[in-house]
Recover the amino acids of this structure.
């Protein structure tokens, strides 16, 4: 299995939205703690470190999120203007 590490911008993650899949059976539910979402949003705005998101590209057209679903969804919520309060 080929392994690689790629840094992406928030904009590039948003542009990949239609290819991202979260529906693996071991994934947790959606982000529930608004204070954590707010902290992540602030980190994105201030260009601070965001922990890695582990994905799997098995050759189909999708990128499967193994770890980082809540972080990735938080970025989507923020981009869509969904409130964190």
């Amino acid at each position: 299995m080929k392994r690689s590490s790629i840094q992406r911008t928030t904009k590039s993650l948003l542009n990949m939205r239609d290819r991202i899949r979260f529906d693996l059976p071991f994934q947790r539910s959606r982000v529930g703690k608004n204070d954590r979402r707010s902290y992540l949003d602030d980190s994105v705005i201030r260009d601070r470190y965001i922990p890695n998101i582990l994905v799997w590209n098995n050759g189909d057209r999708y990128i499967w999120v193994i770890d980082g679903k809540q972080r990735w969804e938080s970025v989507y919520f923020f981009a869509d203007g969904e409130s964190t309060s």
About this structure: The chain has one domain: 10-79.
